[in-house]
Amino acid sequence: MKVFADKILQDKVAFVTGGGTGITGGIARAFAEHGAKVAITSRKMENLEAMRQVIESKGGECFAIVSDVRDYEAVSNAIAETVKRFGKIDIVVNGAAGNFLCKAEELSSNGFGVVVDIDTKGTFNVCRAAFEELKKSKGQILNISATLHYLATPMQIHVSAAKAGVDAITRNLSVEWGRYGIRVNGIAPGPIEDTEGMRRLLPENMKEKLRERIPLQRFGKISDIENAALFLCSDAASYINGVTLVVDGGHWLTGTSFF
Length: 259
Ligand code: HXC
Hints:
alpha/beta; 7-stranded parallel beta sheet
């Protein structure tokens, strides 16, 4: 069900990392349905191609380009190609992320580093590479974070550290780039159904227990995150800067872990 005006993002151009699947795939599709032209990027063309077809089948405009957010040159190229294709960039959504469950005492240095590289350095790379375009458009950045690091989440030390870094980037850039008219915000989703994260992190036999711990008594839907993203990236949020909006049904406040 659409809750916003159809063309709320009319004439905007959005560059969405991790835009082929999951939460950020949903955000890309929702932005296109609300009038934006979207560029989606990730490591796998097959994921991007599938999402491009979904978006175009609904009458949207989509450009798919492969890049790994850990590779600054590749990201810069994807941004340049997007500008060549659509003329500008108004919105950057940083959704590319890595995750797996691993106890801290079993995690290798490389395993810790790979997630920080994708989530944290990748977010910085994309923001940095898009800066000149965002300055021209007085655009905005939306960073997808998590609530894992608000307390402590076992087997997620790498992701918790990485997402804490993402939140720091959101706050820092909102202060440093606010003067250019660039707004920088984030969303911290809770447990969202039908996502790679949930499939990887939550064993089927623990689902019901977790659901009961969520104050709203249900898992989030990708559309819950899409709606928060539409709000934050629309003019309705034009004075919101430096905020990471928690969209988790109240889960993290219960002080209970995912696992
Ligand atoms: C322990 C692991 C591991 C695992 C990888 N590593 N998987 N260690 N348990 N399951 C270690 C490897 O041993 C290696 O260290 C290092 O990590 C790099 O692994 P590679 O496979 O070479 O890296 P790469 O091919 O770059 O892949 C990185 C990846 C990626 C992070 C594993 O495949 C990935 O993230 N895929 C999932 C994408 C995903 O799920 N996205 C949704 C995220 S959900 P050594 O020492 O051996 O060299 C999300 C939500 C968070 O972020 C909040 C949820 C509530």
